[in-house]
């Protein structure tokens, strides 16, 4: 159950008041009585603890513990019966001066049912169960993803509840597919220098041949990845050799019969024959390189596959085709299917979920933005995404990282509601003056008439006056909002009298 503004304010103040006390030794007593638990059993237990405390060596500590327990027992006897939601009781010597006695006892029926029983003597009061109740009970969806996997969860307060984890079928950069060369193959850069293909960086400009224009051009490398291959074909010519996967494409010069001409065709390495002419580059000229020998070796080795903007490059002196666009299309298609699956799960998990305040979204690199910007998610779900963050992980660690990086957003969301209602009040104060009022006496008068729809109370208003207003508001079913002073709007309410009201109907002032 989510606390309303008044419950939250009162409990927050109670916790704050008790958190300042410190015992000199383990002498502050905390007791939590669960809902439905017999109060007499609690009193009997505390009486037993009084007897046990007689064994404490320090006379001062012994006296403080026994006296705190006695005050608590007397207090519980007056209460008599455990309240419906249980009871939290605190007692101890809270004097700031050593050697002086100031035994106090406090109790509160929490707004949420207590399910745990606690007895503890410590240097501070045990307030964690009450602090937990103050945590937001609204739900937030959480999604962390990249092309490989996606993890879905719910955030309840500060607890992450995993929902589902899925993996994709998108071929990775180290998976089979594509046409490849050995890592030590030397490619010709546009500058004229050579570089091993496994050291090639993206956007590096390679020497490439424009067959339509009949000239060499500069063409950047746009993708590169390792591929495991089980078969290597070695092609030898008088001008050099090259090792490639069986599906790698080479440009071959083929004479046209009955014509003194030739054409250029593409052949895979396994389709090449001795006597075929490959295209060999020397300087800025293309020469014939006749294949003299072809051999095949069965192995298991990592090879390198690249994609070049102009679709060909120079490797070990030979003009070769880059990775088939087919593999890139396979990757893109698999990614698209995976994105659709993520979007469908988000719809199933989050669309109809009550109390969902928003969705936190994250992942490594650009993939998360690609997913969101391509409109895979239905509008009703997309509108709930309130934060997108760069992450290092996509699993349970990613969820923790996402929570950490969204703390600012969650804090903003918590105060967004009160900012909205105060802004509404301030706007009406400027445009519909007869529908609002402010100031302690004016608001009291409006409450007496039953004219107040929403009562705004600043946390800076003295507690006694706030309680008086709340009591009157209950008589007329008035919505009460406690407004913090941590926002500009909250400060404005404080400055105009700490109390404001949005009215059900205009009243004469």
Distance between the termini: 39 Å
CATH level 4 superfamily of the largest domain:
Hedgehog/Intein (Hint) domain
Query: What is the CATH topology of the largest domain?
Result: Endonuclease - Pi-scei, Chain A, domain 1
Number of domains: 4
Number of strands: 25
Helix content: 25-40%
- Radius of gyration, rounded? 38 Å
SS-based class:
alpha+beta
**Which architecture of the largest domain does the CATH hierarchy give at level 2?**
Beta Complex
- Main sheet record: 5 strands, mixed
How confident is the prediction overall: mean pLDDT? 89
With helices defined by DSSP (H or I, 4 residues minimum), what is the helix count?
12
The CATH class designation of the largest domain is: Mainly Beta
Sheet-strand content, in percent, reads: 25-35%
Shape: elongated
**If strands are numbered along the chain, what order do they take across the biggest sheet?**
7-6-5-20-21
Attribute tags:
509 residues; Translation, Eukaryotic Peptide Chain Release Factor Subunit 1, Chain A; 4 domains; 4-stranded antiparallel sheet; 34% strand
Structure summarized in a few sentences:
The protein contains twelve helices and 25 strands. With 509 residues, it is α+β, with helices and mostly antiparallel strands.
């Amino acid at each position: 159950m989510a606390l309303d503004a008044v419950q939250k304010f009162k409990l927050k103040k109670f916790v704050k008041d008790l958190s300042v006390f410190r015992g000199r030794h383990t002498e502050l007593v905390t007791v939590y009585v669960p809902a439905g638990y017999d109060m007499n059993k609690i009193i009997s237990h505390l009486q037993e603890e009084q007897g046990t405390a007689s064994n404490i060596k320090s006379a001062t500590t012994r006296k403080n513990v026994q006296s705190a327990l006695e005050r608590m027992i007397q207090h519980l006897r007056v209460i008599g019966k455990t309240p419906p939601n249980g009871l939290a009781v605190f007692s101890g010597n809270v004097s700031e001066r050593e050697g002086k006695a100031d035994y106090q006892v406090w109790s509160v029926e929490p707004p949420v049912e207590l399910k745990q029983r606690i007895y503890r003597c410590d240097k501070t009061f045990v307030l964690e169960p009450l602090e937990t109740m103050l945590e937001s009970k609204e739900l937030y969806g959480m999604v962390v993803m990249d092309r490989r996997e996606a993890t879905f969860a719910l955030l309840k307060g500060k607890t992450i509840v995993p929902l589902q984890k899925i993996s994709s079928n998108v071929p990775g950069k180290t998976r089979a597919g594509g046409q490849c060369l050995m890592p030590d193959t030397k490619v010709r850069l546009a500058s004229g220098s050579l570089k091993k293909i496994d050291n090639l960086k993206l956007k590096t400009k390679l020497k490439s041949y424009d067959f339509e224009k009949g000239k060499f051009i500069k063409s950047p490398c746009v993708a590169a990845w390792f591929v495991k291959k089980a078969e290597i074909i070695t092609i030898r010519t008088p001008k050099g050799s090259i090792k490639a996967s069986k599906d790698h494409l080479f440009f071959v010069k083929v004479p046209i019969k009955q014509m003194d001409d030739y054409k250029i065709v593409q052949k895979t390495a396994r389709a090449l024959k001795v006597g075929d002419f490959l295209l060999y580059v020397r300087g800025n000229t293309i020469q014939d390189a006749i294949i003299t020998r072809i051999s095949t070796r069965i192995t298991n080795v990592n090879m390198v596959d690249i994609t070049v903007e102009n679709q060909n490059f120079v490797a070990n002196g030979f003009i070769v085709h880059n990775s088939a666009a087919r593999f890139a299309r396979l990757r893109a298609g698999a990614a698209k299917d995976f994105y659709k699956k993520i979007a469908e799960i988000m719809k199933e998990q989050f669309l109809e979920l009550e109390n969902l305040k928003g969705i936190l979204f994250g992942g490594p690199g650009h993939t998360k933005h690609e997913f969101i910007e391509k409109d895979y998610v239905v509008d009703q779900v997309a509108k709930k995404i309130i934060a997108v963050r760069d992450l290092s992980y996509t699993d349970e660690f990613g969820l923790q990282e996402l929570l950490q990086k969204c703390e600012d957003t969650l804090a903003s969301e918590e105060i967004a509601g009160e900012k909205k209602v105060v802004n509404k009040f301030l706007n009406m104060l400027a445009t519909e003056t007869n529908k609002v009022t402010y100031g302690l006496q004016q608001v009291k008068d409006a409450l007496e008439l039953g004219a107040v729809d929403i009562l705004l109370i600043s946390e800076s208003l003295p507690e006694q006056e706030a309680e008086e207003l709340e009591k009157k508001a209950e008589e007329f079913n008035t919505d009460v909002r406690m407004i913090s002073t941590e926002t500009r709007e909250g400060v404005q309410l404080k400055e105009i009298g700490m109390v404001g009201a949005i009215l059900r109907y205009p009243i004469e002032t």
